[in-house]
Design a protein that fits this description.
This protein is an alpha+beta fold. About 35% of the residues lie in helices and about 25% in strands. It has 3 domains: about 120 residues, no CATH class; about 130 residues; about 100 residues, no CATH class. A hairpin with a 2-residue loop joins strand 2 and strand 3. The longest helix is centred in the middle third of the chain and has 20 residues.
């Protein structure tokens, strides 16, 4: 699931010293529905309005939500997504010609000046944060005829499905293309507890619900060349709904990814071979750091080995040969790259479950898993 950054309003708004016009332009989007003179706002007044401001309830919520979302993109990766999205949506739109704006200012400026570009950047950020996902295999080279129309149809179908299951039909599906990948971000409400808090003064107290952000973000990423689809959803039932709806709306066949072999993407049997190794390209490194397996013996003993190099540890302890033919339930591999020496932790469990931070080197991870015969083509 996409993770929202804890909103430090003070630190965020301090970045607008000397750029107060951006705060005013953003606030002016709500014109008369917020009780504030947008043209007179400076940093201290804007901070005070965030805490004590008043206006139409829905508008105030949207105003605060926009700030949260702008802050979510205020990172190095978010900056890249904003710049790329502005270029993709409108090549003539350049919100920062000199490249000097802090990312906080750039983010809010784009939110006020080009909402389509901002939403695309936010969708990209949501996809980059995905960590735990399932993979299914369809027919290779099967292209989606009309992704935009498919997104609209998916939104209608999922709204009806979630209305029964989640007691909310509020669903938004957005899509964008990135190379050979067609990506769909599915926003939908989840049931949350809205706590009541006292606000106002002692003389005129009022009770209001805390402002929560009940939108859940799931994603579908489809490779038009290989026919592989990656899906991240919180629950198995929701994942099934997304998979069937995606297949129905994009290819006219809700059962396209329902065959047993569609989910048969990973095999850990290669690890039990005596000559198994994690060979990598120059400058990269890879180590098996955790292995869960059983031995074919009486009482079916199970083992969990954790080490900086599990293969070497098994060899040193004369255990490698016992691994031959043993059922493996889970493997964790640490892969490092020249620009990421801390390494990427890749966890594989089952035939189609994988977990790793997808923001960078996702293609390299899949390439290595194929090379090591852990990922089926």
């Amino acid at each position: 699931m996409a993770k929202h950054r804890a909103f430090n309003a003070d630190r965020f708004v301090d970045k607008f010293e000397g750029h107060e016009d951006l705060l005013r332009a953003y606030t002016a989007l709500w014109k008369g529905s917020l009780r504030v003179d947008a043209g007179s706002l400076d940093v201290p007044l804007f901070k005070d309005f965030i805490v004590n401001g008043d206006g139409d309830g829905a508008s105030m919520d949207q105003f605060l939500e926009g700030l949260y979302r702008a802050y979510d993109l205020s990172s190095e990766r978010g900056h890249e997504d904003i710049v790329a999205s502005c270029r993709d949506v409108d090549p003539d739109y350049d919100p920062d010609p000199g490249g000097k704006l802090p990312v906080e200012c750039l983010s809010l400026k784009v939110r006020a000046g080009n909402e389509d570009a901002f939403n695309l950047a936010y969708d990209r950020a949501a996809l980059h944060q995905a960590e735990r996902f399932s993979i299914f295999q369809g027919e290779a080279g099967l292209a989606i005829p009309d992704a935009r129309a498919a997104a609209g149809e998916m939104q209608e179908i999922l709204s009806a499905l979630f209305k029964d299951d989640k007691h909310s039909d509020r669903v938004l599906v957005r899509q964008y293309q990135e190379g050979v990948y067609t990506n769909f971000i599915v926003y939908h409400e989840k049931r949350t507890q809205a706590l009541l808090t006292f606000q106002g003064t002692k003389v005129q107290p009022k009770v209001s619900p805390t402002v929560l952000r009940p939108a859940q973000q799931d994603y579908i990423s489809y490779n038009n060349e290989t026919g592989q689809v990656e899906i991240e959803a919180r629950f198995e039932k929701e994942q099934t709904a997304l998979r069937k709806t995606f297949a129905r709306c994009c290819f006219g066949d809700p059962d396209l990814f329902e065959k047993p072999e569609s989910a048969d993407k990973f095999s850990l049997d290669a690890i039990t071979c005596e000559d198994f190794s994690l060979d990598v390209d120059g400058g990269d490194f890879a180590f098996l750091v955790e292995l869960h397996f059983k031995l074919r013996q009486k009482f079916n003993p199970a083992w969990v080995v954790r080490s900086k190099d599990v293969l070497d540890t098994l060899q040193v302890n004369d255990f490698r040969k016992r691994l031959a033919g043993a059922p493996v339930q889970k493997a964790v591999i640490k892969i490092g790259f020249p620009d990421d020496r801390r390494g990427k932790r890749v966890e594989i469990g089952g035939t189609n479950k994988i977990s790793f931070k997808r923001a960078t080197h996702a293609e390299d991870v899949f390439r290595y898993l194929s090379r090591w015969k852990l990922l089926r083509g």
